[in-house]
Design goal:
This protein has about 260 residues and is α/β, with parallel strands linked by helices. The protein is built from four helices and 29 strands.
């Protein structure tokens, strides 16, 4: 199908534009950019060099995708920003490229990124995520599959979110949030299991109950994280949710958000 590029848009001749792409007036498409089939770029959006955008995305007015990284360690070398398929990126979103030629900033597929969100260099956002208005994610962070960050959430550098987490509005996260939980308040505290979203996502009542039991051991018994994991292994039968929780926490060397220092 034909590609619809406004004569009032700037598209560098070296940019690779797929089929059925729409680029509206006053958009800026830099050199060394690739845009996949069916994607729509709205007016006043800038797609900067080193950006690779997949199929069927819609990027709204004023967004800057692949902006130069805001990090003194970036020395001007060629770096990258990757965006998957079927994402909606609303107005004035800024996504920075990585700071080295390897890796790069990566946005998965089928996520909804709301207005004025900022995603820093080398951050990874997995598939099916929702980032609310004004979310701020620093560099080298990661957001797990099917996570929701409500408006105004701040995710600090090198922090990670496990899959299916919900971070309530205005919450500041500095550290690692294990999967399936809700975090709220400042400083961040455990607010329960993300049960409503998990059930909508196909998790069974038994799985949700097991998740709740696991986090009672971790957050509500006053024992160390090390002992809590031992109790989970003794109390719960092996399952995908039990192993996801244990593997994530062990992968973080038992350092997770909302645990008092003397219980880590």
């Amino acid at each position: 199908m034909a590609t619809n590029i406004s004569p009032l848009a700037h598209v560098d001749p070296s940019a690779k534009i797929g089929d059925n792409v729409t680029i509206h007036p006053f958009a800026f498409i830099d050199a060394d950019v690739e845009i996949g089939d069916g994607t729509e770029i709205m007016s006043y959006t800038s797609i900067i060099r080193g950006t690779r955008i997949g199929r069927d995305n819609k990027i709204y007015q004023g967004s800057i995708i692949g902006a130069d990284p805001q990090d003194f360690r970036w020395t001007g070398c060629k770096t990258y920003c990757y965006v998957g398929d079927k994402n909606v990126i609303r107005e004035h979103v800024i996504i920075n490229r990585g700071i080295t030629s390897e890796g790069g900033t990566r946005i998965g597929s089928e996520s909804f990124i709301m207005a004025e969100t900022h995603i820093g260099h080398d951050t990874v956002v997995a598939d099916h995520c929702v980032l609310g208005n004004g979310v701020t994610i620093a560099g080298d962070a990661s957001v797990g599959t099917c996570s929701i960050l409500s408006s105004g959430v701040i995710l600090h550098e090198k922090s990670t979110l496990g899959a299916w987490t919900l971070i309530k509005g205005g919450c500041r996260i500095s550290g690692n949030v294990p999967p399936f939980v809700i975090m709220a308040h400042n400083p961040a505290s455990y607010f329960g299991v993300n049960a409503v979203v998990l059930r909508k996502g196909g998790f069974t009542d038994e799985e949700v109950d097991d998740i709740a039991k696991a986090y009672r051991h971790i957050y509500q018994t006053g024992t160390s994280v090390f002992n809590a994991l031992k109790r989970i292994e003794a109390d719960l039968k092996p399952s995908r949710v039990r192993e996801a929780i244990i593997d994530y926490i062990r992968g973080c060397n038992l350092k997770i958000v909302a645990i008092p220092r003397d219980l880590e």
